[in-house]
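User: These chains co-purify. Model them together.
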Amino acid sequence: MADNDWKPKIIAFVCNWCTYAGADLAGTSRLKYDVNVRVIKLPCTGRIDPLFIIKAFEQGADGVLVSGCHPGDCHYTSGNYHARRRWIVFSQLLRFFGIPEDRVQFSWVSAAEGAKWADLVNEVVGKVRELGPFTAYHEIESAEAIS
Amino acid sequence: MIEELRQKARELLEKGEVDLVIGYGEGSDPTRTMPVFIRRPEDCDRLVWNKYCYNNLTSYLTWPELKTAGKPAVVCKGCDAKAVVVLCKESQINREDVVVIGMSCEGVGEPLLGKCEFCDVRTPKNCDIVIGPEIEPLSKEKQYEDVEQLEGKDAADRWEFWRDQFSRCIKCYACRQACPLCYCTQCIVERNQPQWVPTSSHPKGNFAWNIMRAMHLAGRCIGCGECERVCPSNIPLMLANKKLAQVVKEQFGYESGYDIDEPLPMASFMPEDSDELFK
Amino acid sequence: MRLEEVIDEAPGIRTLKLAFQDEAAGENFSFKAGQFGLYSVFGEGECTFCIASPPTRKGYIECSFQEVGRVTNALRQLEVGDTLGFRGPYGNWFPLDEMKGKNIIFVGMGIGLAPVRCVIWNCLDLRADFSDITIIVGSRNVDLLPYKPELKQWEEMSDVNLVKTVDPGGETPDWDGKVGFVPTVVEQLAPSPDNAVVIICGPPIGIKFTLVSLEKLGFSPDQVYTTLENKMKCGLGKCGRCNVGNVYVCKDGPVFTAAQIRALPQEF
Amino acid sequence: MAEFKLNRDKLGELVKALKGEGYRVVAPVEQERTFVFEEVDDPGEIRLDVLRTKRSIKGWFFPRVEPTLSYEFDGQSVTCKSDLPESPPKTVIIGCRPCDAASLPMLDKLFDWDYRDEYWFKRREATTVISVACDAPDSYCFCTSVGGAPDGTAGADLVMKKTSSGDYLLEPATEKGTAIVEAAKSALDPATGNEEILVGEVPQRFDLGAVKPWLDDNFDHEYWKEISYKCLSCGVCAFVCPTCHCFDIQDESTLERGVRLKSWDSCCLPIFTRHGSGHNPRSTRDTRYRQRVMHKFTYYVDKFGVTACVGCGRCSAACPIDMNICTVVAGAAKLAETST
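Assistant: Joint model of the four components:
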């Protein structure tokens, strides 16, 4: 694929109660935001396993966005608090392994923050567009391994 | 020390306080030892103690086969004994169901393993019996030097470093099997609906496996280094484990394997945890 | 191959009818009752099932499976018209030629009826070659009994003796078959071992106990055939997964006599 | 007998000559404090002195991950393409030990019976194996107990034997080996016939003849439990083994395309035989370890007439808990002795 044809693939894992509703609000408010994001809705950020992010990269994502309710606002009381600890640790691990920080963005977007969602998506897509396709990851394709 | 160990083990078995003693026995080579399971007092002379007692024998404690074997006593170095603390905290074993025989230890390996250079449990803690003299703990000040060295490189170099390291992984899962805290009855790589981690040992599958292995040990790894020692490809797995231990310590003020009552860091939270990462 | 028809047999049990996409390949394809194939859902993997349709019916094959894992789950998602991969036929077969003129007793337990079904239809299509045919089918409960329309067909055949049974507690108010475990039912039925062969398949534990019952009735282990369903991957006697003792089930089996099974290490 | 010898300083020239003839050269090199067989660019990296590489040469014939089939999705239809390499690169493996070389004809039997595995044989045909006789075997070695020898020629196309002066005598064992000598003549010197060959000694550690009958009769012996309680059930032994050949087949795919991969597997891993239903015929570690020994020392013998162990000692050396297969089999031989 020629470079100028390339469109970043961003996978957004969002919680059902806040960010998804926020994204919905962005839509009903007719806010324009980048189309290169594919949203996957989950019950809670606490449900988002770090493996989801790895799987997204494996399947060709160039960036990942994880978003849920603001701390204190979790529909399940504490799901996002647990998620927060997990992401603090996991983001450091990804960084340590050399995955550019701008490819994985964590955030809190409430149901009322349609505009924040739109801005966030634009920002993430913009950063990933700047970085280009995540060939470093995609190229470690299932190559033949010898001995 | 060996005689004292044998004596204690003999006593435990004779008095019926335990049904078996898991310890180190003579290896096939003078520079190795082999785990031994001793059930009869007269076999206690098979126990040895030397600087080649590498294995973390606590990894046997969670095995299904052991559930029917009666009450065990386990011979531990200070680092190994930390695993008992975590296993208890994670409700895998009851502390009173195992007798921990701690061995004072000046380090194992020839030359000394990396972990032994920063050891603060040369006199084991949280043990029922401690054999050997009190040994001064070493300073842990420089324990993250290797981690920091790698961190000093830029992202592309780090990526290349790990990609090359992981490309040598042959997915033998020795790291998992040797780890006292990898006790899941069904590992994530064995779950195939969906197949979360590719089973083949190509670089992509290896990356997913190794990143998950490290992540699952976040806030839990006690730094015994068995994963790295048993790795047939010599992948520096402990670097990742140590990195996470460092993050957990800095962020949540927790060190694994010391306090049996402190809540587990990845299963608890504080409302005031850092929000810096989140937009 | 192309998925032609989907038949829901019982909860979790489904039969797929497959047609060859390449007609010439379909015409050249032949197999013997008892052989198996590897069916693949592209993207998910391969799975081993016996061919459940009889070799006497050309142009298509059927397989029946119970949904348990990754591939069977994916098989269940397939729709008519989808493409499947097929490798086979592999393995050995029931020596029907040697069974000519004999009384044949079929025992199928649960999904284990699938390989037996292939032989049943094969024998029924060549009915004149065989003497009495008895079919004993069992399952945990009525609902889980596969091939219900076919059971009815067999029941109605005058030259077939069909015995249906479900495990105690698995019966429904309008159940017209027996209630009891298959080994017990076999003992009650007490078929004569004279000039007879038994073809049996089911879960390992069911086979084990039925063999004991048959022995009590005087059947010699040479008279009893079963098919082993080990985990297999390659089907070619290479990958080592189905190895039990000195046999590769995928090549030296899957059909064994009870005598052969007894000689193997009990690891299946 | 040997007509030519390789001067100890001329290995680089040999490699260069072979490369000039279009060979891909594979040899033991150091990698992160272990030794493995890798394609060599710089002949200076070659370590002919290394007795035991971590992994065997089997990966060069039977890669640890190998695509067998690729496919692309298009609506309800699928287009497939076989990934069988037309002609694998012409390769020469220099510096494997006689035990490694011996594993090749042993595995030929498996890959050829009933169905011929072209993935294996195409690479076999394209590859020339040069083994180096062992001048200094160690305590893990037991090739002589399983029918091998430190200067054995089985499976090798050319055997290099170290002389007291540090040079290597070249003894071709096959036409392929002779071709190598021809191709590399410029780097070789004529042998004088007066060289003193260094070959180490490997004591015989058990009587293979006694082992199989005992294994056949003692499937349920307590011995298995006794020795394997400490087994970790990892796959190191199988993956480093030159004769362990069990593999797994898995599909990996995206929405557009997929690939069917064949990859190494080990009977010691609990999932190896686990059925979809959860039933596992070998659910305990003693049954799995027993399978490994049985498969090598009796099942394979029944099936193919040879013992599937070459006595390289790799599994023993690499085992995290020091399970020594030689000791295990010798233990069985001893039990056989006492039971008669």
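Chain B is about 30% helix and 10% strand.
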